[in-house]
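#help-structures
NK: newbie question, is this the right format to request a structure? protein is Endonuclease/exonuclease/phosphatase domain-containing protein
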Amino acid sequence: MLNIIPLWSSIDGRLLATKVSHISGLYDPVNIFVIYVPAQHRERIEFLRSFLTTMPFDQLLTSRSVFLGDFNHNIHTRQSNPSLAQWFQWIHLNWHDPINADPEHNNIPTFRNISTIDFLLITADLIDMVDNHDIKYVARCDHSAISTYLTLGCPRTGPGIWRCNPYLAQGPHFRAELTAFCTNAEHFLPDLDTPLLWDIFKCRLKSFIQSFSNKAAAQRRHNLNKLQRMRKWLLRQPTDDETNAQIASVESQLELQYEHSSSVLALRSGQRWREQGERSNTYFYRCLRQRQQQQYISSIRTDTGTVVTEPLDLTETAREYYEQLYSPEPMDEQATSDLLAHWTR
């Protein structure tokens, strides 16, 4: 549902600029800038000193912009090097850090358990659009995932066709609840014909599975948030063998949670085969987005040749088309009389 337009890239690939918009214009485009600052001290100093003359911010940085990446230093800690004064002044005048502004996430390490070097910044006009933000542990990675949710527009697609999640059958608790539901079905089903009774049973079964899934998903979110909070709390404690062991235990539990989420995401994306342990969520999200784009009608051409894209116009055009398609045409009385007159007995 997104249209990503590359705008600019540095020769070494450390600076990228792109514009993101919705294919149906649900919201105004957003500029996204990605940076990867060198890790070595001398290279980092030279890179930041020449940064403002390298990146074409003058033409792009007006509003609705996001600046993110691996900065390899804490932008909220002043450096003693005077040559970086212009860099820090530019950062704090033009950008807002919604994650660091939250006391819950302030100074949480984003690289291993040591330092805060990854940031996601936004311009001032997007501050009111921030819905949520978080720092999460990512299994098999030395960087944490930082995220900010922006409310830019409302979706125009519905929930689609419902299908039961087959991974539910792997849980003994679900199997026991399902067995009890089917066993007690005769007590809540009316006395009707078998075909109608079967349809009613399927509707009741769908409601039961959806209710079970919603409760299970809420419990998983609760457990995941609890584990993330526990890890953040442990990171703030003095480092010793016991604390490191507790962090490792929490991270192993988080890895199990992410494995389940990746399996469900792969299922939603329509990928029926994947390597054992594969968790390329970026790939799965891309496949899921492609499926949604194939199911979504962004424009319709009318009989007059006009292309409509607005939701109300799309609905009205579709209604007129199907109304004409399924409306019976008036009978030609003269043609009927001629046919009957020439009917050969």
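mod (FA): yep, format's fine, and the tokens are attached above. The radius of gyration is 29 Å.
NK: thank you!
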